[in-house]
Amino acid sequence: MNPSSQLQSAAAALARAGRVVCLTGAGVSAESGIATFRDAQTGLWAKFDPQELASQEGFARNPGLVWRWYMDRLHWVEEAQPNAGHYALAELERIAPDFTLVTQNVDNLHERAGSVNVVHLHGSIARFRCNRCAKQHALQPAEREADLPPRCAVCQGLVRPDVVWFGEMLPQAMVARAWQAAEAADVALIVGTSGVVYPAAQLPYVAQNGGAFVIDINPEASGLSTMADVHLAGPSGEISPRLVAAVQNARTA
Ligand code: APR
Questions:
Q1: CA–CA separation, 24 vs 119, rounded Å?
Q2: Which domain holds residue 64?
Q3: Is the CB of 193 under 6 A from ligand 1?
């Protein structure tokens, strides 16, 4: 199939679909200038081991270092703007009867583009909680500049970002929502993920086993593009808007 008929067949499947699950990864935010965890290891932070910056052990050894790293990352995320790929997925949610967006990204660019039903499998960099009692913490301006993390108002434990660190369990309620959406999906749309980090990488297979048509958007070929019914090769900021426009055409035709 040529690229244009692949796009049409993906659009036709989406236009027919009652339930859509969408899985996104770092590639969706790449065009917004958000470095992936691995790419972010440049400049000031290049000499630090990711495991030291994003693990319970690293936080225990040096809470101030971990806090400063996340405050920098939060600043970069706030400076970034959603791109055309984020906006297209938000538009698709408005068109589809039932749409669940499952993201591995800890940024909030999907929500800022207008997506509503968003499941954060790896947590969110803009939310904070106590590392001991899990109580949510509202970040204060002065805390952003501090050299050490704030203390929990309830138990005095250290406050941390609400993201999943190396060696930690994923939030089980989010995993359950993602799995339910995948099992019930008529179409699974995969955008900007390499599909190497589990359990997120299983989601397209769960959807396919349940009978879903699978579409992969990624400039590179991967295991996911091979298992997908259609691989749309290209950046999400370019392909997703074209796909959504084709879905709109197919629905009004
Ligand atoms: N549009 C679409 N896809 C893109 C783009 C783009 N503009 N640019 C890059 N990609 C693709 C790459 O080809 C790659 O397949 O995005 C994918 C990014 O892969 P990873 O960096 O492995 O990101 P992801 O799949 O989200 O990783 C999962 O790993 O680092 C941990 O917890 C972190 O959530 C992350 C998880």
A1: 10
A2: 43-79+128-163
A3: yes
